Amino acid sequence: MSISTVAPYGSWKSPITADLLLGGSVNLSQPRLDGDDVYWLEGRPAERGRQVVVRRAADGTTADVTPPGFNARTRVHEYGGGDYAVHDGVVTFANDADQRLYVQRPGQAPQPLTAESQSRYADMQIDAARGRLLAVREDHSGPGEAVNSLVAIALDDGAIITLAAGNDFYSSPRLSPDGRRLAWLTWNHPNMPWDGTELWLAELDGDGMPRDARRVAGGPAESIFQPEWSPPGAGDGGALHFVSDRSGWWNLYRLGDDGTGADVPPERLYAMAAEFGQPQWVFGLSTYAFLNADTIICTYTVDGRRFMALLDTLSGQLRPLDVAHAGTMLDAAGGWAVYVGASPTAAAAVVRLDLSGGRLGAVEVLRHSTEFAVDEAYLSIAEPVEFPTEGGLTAHGYFYAPRNRDYAAPAGELPPLIVTSHGGPTSATTGDLSLSRQYWTSRGFAILDVNYGGSTGYGRAYRERLADNWGVVDVDDCINGARRLVEQGRVDGERLIIRGGSAGGYTTLRAITAHRVFKAAASYYGISDAEALAKDTHKFESRYSDKLIGPYPARRDLYVKRSPLHVANDCSAALILFQGLEDKVVPPDQSEAMFIAARNKELPVAYVAFEGEGHGFRQAANIKRAMENELYFYGRVFGFEPGEPLEPVEIENLP
């Protein structure tokens, strides 16, 4: 039995280095089945964040589809998603550099489909019978904000016709299996898709144009997610299914039919205090798929934890699946399902699940997100925690204790705690394995990853706790979670850190300007001026803060009061800021202004900016530098020596 080295928390040497973590790592998304082939997207930090369409053939060989020089990424809503479609081996994708659509046939180079313009396209579906592509278009050619619509694009000459327009946003064009009906989602300012969306349905005439379009579900206070058609059953062309939170939980529904073709009220397929949907931050999300006309494979969340099951739509029975990798981004066909799955001990992977006959539930991992295998003796496993917060309510999160088989802390020493606030803020963290979290825990830090009020995975009421209270509820929950761990004697109350990106960066900055709990903070492209964000951001989020803070400019007083920049003189913690200089969501001047204010107050502060990065870092060299700069910063602030040599970062006002 090896004897552990005794060393202070934070100074432990770990095999989980930034180089190893990023060297063989990719981001996986959007798996698709096309006959016997499986496709997915890989985001590669080692290739400056380039997204590549990858194909695994029926014989088990895997190869890139999109060649070097192409980056399969759309910028619709800035966050993208739904970046490609595939049918009979023909791939259509959006290219990041010019935002044009390209068609790539087997064995050929990509050919442009759409003309050079100021339009972007996403959420594509092939209408094979009509030789066209259905998509969301975002047109930036006119004055004011972009114009969104649903369009059809001819695959032979790129001719475009508009199918639906007039509302602020569209998503999820879904063609029925018989090609006779089209469903889609739409919503308007100030709603976000998790606030209220409408599900529309139309017949398609001989020219493929919608007629008799009508709203069949949804409204300003009901969120609809992922319309999907079942395969044809006996004598029908497929039934329209969707996820709705009309009960307070995102549950699965089927649109009724009285036999005459008339719409009848939707039928809930399975009543459960669980979330079968997700916030639509990106296009192309999928939490369920059809194995046949009467069987759905689905993923759902209970108390922030993800599960998978089969749902029999005739009997209403839900049968849980015992799978090591629970996942999302589901697609299914021919008795197979593919998805991106993970677990507390396994990083994300593209998984194929056999749901046919005698091999029910057999799992095959097609692609791991990392080639770096970690000894479990270095892994900290997520511990779901609940803790009391303001108003007699309960908040949620995941606690990770420090863990490294090679080290032990000096007797009586408690670990520093990093409180992490996720982005969105309408989003959630999970307990799945993240090597970037293990980077910290294996060096002797504890982590509390908070699903503050406003997070998804706990029902609509929990999600709506943040309404009018952004910068208050999220901050209170982070503070109360940290205090709870201090009271339990699990962490050092004098070494509390808070960090977060985007909206999580805002929570971070609010926490250190409105309270005096945290000693250090790291903001990644965080919002420091809520008023500036309300006046200068992209269309998708331009009215988001109406629900989170209040209508602008009518409640300008709240925007000023809750902007960390306006109360920067109250800043109470050492601060490091990271920012992409091409960020269109949170412009660089937000971080720059906060840096100047903290420097003028003579607080220890550092600012690290990256050329060529937007909202979220994609390039391996920049991700590595940010991680190591942050560790170096904490070492200087708290007076410990990290276990490996690190590139110094300039820290102003450090005694």
The CATH homologous superfamily of the domain at 7-16 and 375-638 corresponds to: Alpha/Beta hydrolase fold, catalytic domain
Radius of gyration: 25 Å
Low-confidence stretches: none
What distance separates the N and C termini?
A: 43 Å
- Residue fraction in strands: 35-45%
Category by helix and strand content: mainly beta
What is the tally of beta strands? Answer: 38
Summed over residues and divided by their number, the pLDDT gives a mean of 94
Read across the widest sheet, the strand sequence of neighbours is 30-31-34-33-35-36-37-38
Profile the largest sheet. Answer: 8 strands, mixed
Helix content: 10-25%
CATH topology tier name of the domain at 7-16 and 375-638: Rossmann fold
DSSP helical segment count: 10
CATH architecture of the domain at 7-16 and 375-638: 3-Layer(aba) Sandwich
Explain what the structure shows.
This protein has 655 residues and is mostly beta strands. It has a domain at 7-16 and 375-638: Rossmann fold (3-Layer(aba) Sandwich). The protein is 14% helix and 36% strand. It contains ten helices and 38 strands. An eight-stranded mixed beta sheet has the order 30-31-34-33-35-36-37-38, with helices on both faces. It has a four-stranded antiparallel beta sheet with strand order 2-3-4-5, with no helix packed on it. Strand 2 (27-34) and strand 3 (37-44) form a beta hairpin. The mean pLDDT is 94.
